[in-house]
Amino acid sequence: MSEQNNISCACEGGEPTAAETGGGTGKGVGRILVLQILAVAAWYALYLQLLPFSEWFAYGLLGLDPASHLGSAVQFFVYDTPKVLMLLLLVVYGVGILRSFVTVNWTRSFLAGKRESAGNVLAALLGVVTPFCSCSAVPLFIGFMTAGIPLGVTFSFLIAAPMVNEIALVLLYGLLGWKIAALYFATGISIAVVAGWVMGRMRLEPYVEDWVREIRAGEATDEPHMTWKDRFTYALDSVRDIVGRVWKYVVLGIAVGAAIHGYVPEGELAGIMGSEAWWSVPLSVLLGIPMYTNAAGVIPVVEALLGKGAALGTTLAFMMSVIALSFPEMVILRKVLKPRLIAAFILVVGCGILIVGYLFNAII
Amino acid sequence: MKILVMGPGCPKCEQAEKNVREAVAEAGIAADIQKVKDFQEIAKYGVFSTPAVVIDGEVKVVGKAPSKKDVLSWLK
Question: What phi and psi values does residue B35 have, to the nearest 5 degrees?
């Protein structure tokens, strides 16, 4: 079981490489808190200046015409890049603080006593905030199984964890608006809950690899105690880690958006990916499976698709398929799951994504 | 002293091993450093998130790569 070496994984869980633990007492927490309030105030003041600055930059300094394609594209780029990056900083920091409480061990013991249904909902929601990386999927799966968490509940977690996370939501909000971000959150969680519940009904337990069912895990170790100072450091490290990895997708996404913004979309994809073509949704899901990237990487593509006239349902289906159904993750999960269970996983989640795709193509 | 670095081989696990080796070299102590990739073995220690570092049977960190400074503080 050591051939996992060459599998790259888009670790989005925000597991800071060098969080300092231990040390620091409660001293200095008050000072850090005051500094944080000041930092948020400064953040907000700066945030309010972004729009006037971008207009001054594009139309005043560069002297571009606000009505021209180039002018509005430049203004959009200069406004949106710092806007999305600033949002990302704030949200990743906040989630980092939350994550210092909601660890894998905490989630494991929290879910252990829960029944199905409620368990599925809680697992999907915890999947959003628990630090998780697909590399860690196998130990986590073993941990959940040995804690007696039902298989379906475990899958609700495993589906939600990569698909719905704060980075995807901030980028969708910043680039495509709050409505699409909210829609993505609600449908992503629903798929994780329902697919997990359905898999629980399918009685798939015999298709978990035998050695996993025989494991007698040791007592979960107590988490090292974290002081508030440790939590702030942890959050700062996750900001450095995540923003350092994601910023290039943000800039790329906004550049694509600026191009679309300035130069009117031609709707050339409307024919093949529009809501008229019934086969476009299953095709998007199939195309998404071999593709493997994290939520941040797929968003520039999503933006381009929408801008070129692809239907919203089709585009959401594509995005979810790329993130939630990925070939490398199946290879990792194959260590603990028999092929039949993996097939059931792909089938159930794939159906969920199809329904979401058709639903939004029909409504919007 | 026996140090176990647990993880299937993802980038974070490599980072953990590197930091442990550097810290041990810096502290100048003789330690037996082993990588544990077997999931059954990892589960026995009650570790459900990788990377993890175990020193003389005691789990020191779970779910993240410790910094060199962290490891040095455990070696004392």
Answer: -95, 135
